[in-house]
Specification:
Shape: globular
Helix content: 10-25%
Distance between the termini: 18 Å
Number of domains: 1
Order of helices and strands: EEEHEE
């Protein structure tokens, strides 16, 4: 059985941790904006954004991989559809 990649994309997300209200939206130029309640410690905010992307694109969590931006507000994820 061969594995076939249907769609592969890189997604840029600008993250604001420790927000009062959670918000996740796609802005202009395909850049997403995420405000999450989780802190930036122990990858909590990154993990939450990863879950939000999985729900947004309707893919399993394992299909969303964190690529760059560990300590930055601008993060890049890879989504396999």
């Amino acid at each position: 059985m061969k594995c076939r990649i249907i769609g592969l994309m890189q997604v840029i997300v600008r993250v604001t941790p420790k927000a009062r209200r959670e918000r996740f939206e796609e802005g202009k130029n395909g850049v997403f904006t995420a405000a999450v309640k989780e802190k930036a410690e122990r990858n909590e905010a990154n993990d939450r954004v990863q879950r939000l992307l999985a729900v947004h694109f309707n893919v399993p969590l394992v299909n969303v991989k964190f690529l760059t931006g560990q300590r930055s507000r601008k993060k890049i994820f890879e989504v396999v559809e």
